[in-house]
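Example record

One chain of 278 residues, shown exactly as stored in the release files.
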Amino acid sequence: MVIWGKRGDLALKAEEGFTLTLDTFLHIQQLRKRRLRAFCRQAGKFTALPNSRDEKASLLPSLRVNTKLDLLYCQVPSTGVEEWHQLLEKLEEENVTLPVPLPYRRLHARETRLSEFNQTEVKAMLRSYTKVLFVRDPFHRLIATFLQGMGINPSFSSFVQEVLDSGMHNGSVAWKPLVGLCRPCLVQYDYVVMFGFLRQELGHLLRRAGLPVGSLLPELSDSQVQWTYRWLSEQMFSELSAQQKKQLSHFYRWDLAAFPFSSSFLSDLPSTAETGEK
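Predicted structure tokens for this chain:
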């Protein structure tokens, strides 16, 4: 059984044994990308690709590429990208290659950061690679970062204050908003993958990219983790002051507007609708 969220996407709630069909997966992708395009138009977040390597490194800090499999993805901790790396490693070990010859020269290079390539190569990758964005409720990302011991704070409330004090520019990649790290208004992602449905969504994604799935998919526990975090969210949200809650909602306002996090504890706070700053 699937429960549809109030904003037109799958709510992260499914009974054990739920199967996501290809048609449903493709429909969900359309809804997510439509929402993202609407956000980009409203916020005016269209950014030209910079020319210099230093500028690209600053603008695209989290974008990685796999030149053997023609995959581009945004590397943000605690969003499911760790499981994605496991899968790519398995594909590499199996010496998997794309089955269909491509109409352009395939790059084979040691660099994995998109910013390491020249302008012509970057444009070719953005145009032709399969581009994947992993997203997760920003409040759940915060909880995961805190539980992993990143930071020296003894309490969740003090950790949140550290995040807020660090601001947008000086904070860790572990908690910065996805919109700023992954540039979804510049990079036209082919797939927006939600934490909670990794195994089934990645299965469809790989098949459509012409790559084998089957036993290569690792065991993914994100759906069970998601249920745990629903309970943790309530507990940890109650530790925060009203001002911290409002500030967090403002800090993540772009993510909350761009992606379907309607069940997030931060989504019902007043500042979530603000998207004016660039």
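Notes: Residues 1-8, 11-16, 272-278 have pLDDT under 50 and may be disordered.
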